[in-house]
Amino acid sequence: SQQGEEDPQALSIQEGENATMNCSYKTSINNLQWYRQNSGRGLVHLILIRSNEREKHSGRLRVTLDTSKKSSSLLITASRAADTASYFCATEARSNDYKLSFGAGTTVTVRA
Amino acid sequence: DSGVTQTPKHLITATGQRVTLRCSPRSGDLSVYWYQQSLDQGLQFLIQYYNGEERAKGNILERFSAQQFPDLHSELNLSSLELGDSALYFCASSVGNTENIQYFGAGTRLSVL
Predict the structure, then answer these.
(1) Interface of B with A (CB under 8 A)
(2) Phi, psi for residue A82 in degrees, rounded to 5
């Protein structure tokens, strides 16, 4: 079963707009990561946020983490056509064995 | 390029057959992970190896097995294949420490006919 659940399942926006997607998870975590997958390709790591961090930035990406609500959000600012992809959150549970549990993903389409 | 190499890229086979998927991790990475991605199940963790030893097991069927060799490459063996095994199979590797950033290969697309 999957630990993370992304919301929404799909998102369509105009180029230049911001895209926000959310992830909720169930258990205590060491960290939460976001990955991007272009159609039919391997996942690419975007950003990692530790359980003691609340916000992190990387280029046009902003990630927040609220451990009290067991949720995270990923914001992509000034979106480009190249941002069209599926985005997955992945959690490393505190109990763990270093494995990541991936959510079902949010499919983002950026219209030119 | 992630540095993780998976072969073959595509595999077409028949029900009941056995196939082997191969993965070479990034240089220096000790951990290898296998995932199955299908449309209805999403990305499912199958199994992890660390420096030759099995470290974690996920939703891996008994018909599937894996191993990691001394040179750290890994193989995933799928046997008695069923139509429902058709999926993308990804290998990922990581250094294997607590901040487990994984680097994914391009995947093997398996079609069972």
Answers:
(1) 2, 4, 31, 33, 35, 42-43, 45, 48, 50, 55-56, 58, 88, 90, 92, 94, 96, 98-107, 109
(2) -70, -10
CA distance A9 to A32: 19
Residues facing residue B13 across a β-bridge: B112
Return mean pLDDT, chain A. Answer: 92
Paired sense of beta strands B87-94 and B103-104, if any:
antiparallel
Bridge-based pairing state of the strands A10-14 and A106-111: parallel
Cα torsion A80, A81, A82, A86 to 10°: value is: 100
Q: Which residue has the tokens 């990034």?
A: B26
In this model, does residue A98 exceed pLDDT 70? no
pLDDT at A21 over 70: yes
Residue of chain B nearest A31, judged by CA positions: B99
Give the tens place of pLDDT for each residue, B53-68: 998 899 899 999 999 9
What is the phi-psi region of residue B55: left when phi exceeds 0, alpha when psi lies from -120 to 50, beta otherwise? alpha
8 Å CB contact of B109 and A40: yes
Residues facing residue A85 across a β-bridge: A108
Nearest to A98 among B42, B100, B107 (CB): B100
A93 confidence band (pLDDT: 50, 70, 90): confident
Q: Cβ B101–A103 below 8 Å, yes or no?
A: no
- Check: CB of residue A85 under 8 Å from CB of residue A10: no
Residue A26, judged by CB atoms within 10 A of its CB (0-12, 13-18, 19+), counts as middle
